[in-house]
Amino acid sequence: MKRKSLVTLRFVLTFFAAGLLLASCGNGATAENTPKDTTAKDIMAPEHRFTADVVDNKKDPACGMPVTAGITDTAQYKSKVLGFCSKECKTEFEKNPEQYIAAAQIK
């Protein structure tokens, strides 16, 4: 009977110790060293796709903002790639491109 109690106690202590070990190690992950979850959304975010050197305009045709400030969308117009600061500016340009093209300051 004493032997059975010791075996049971040893099993419980071993199981408890293993649980503590697994819980405390946490695979070494902490908030500081956990890599950022890079999803397709992050990789394809507009700020990662377009830079001023890939477009043919110096300013957003619709609002006049310099493309060096940031490009979130592009459109092709008469074999030129135009950068826009927002989807709204691109939509406005597409309504009447001839009205806005002079403001684009094509390179």
Automatic annotation (TrEMBL):
Transmembrane region(s): none
Residues annotated as domain TRASH: 60-97
InterPro entries noted in UniProt: RNR-like, TRASH_dom, YHS_dom
Keywords, comma-separated and alphabetical: Signal
Any one GO molecular function term: oxidoreductase activity
Top-level division of the source organism's lineage: Bacteria
Signal peptide: 1-31
Protein name: YHS domain-containing protein
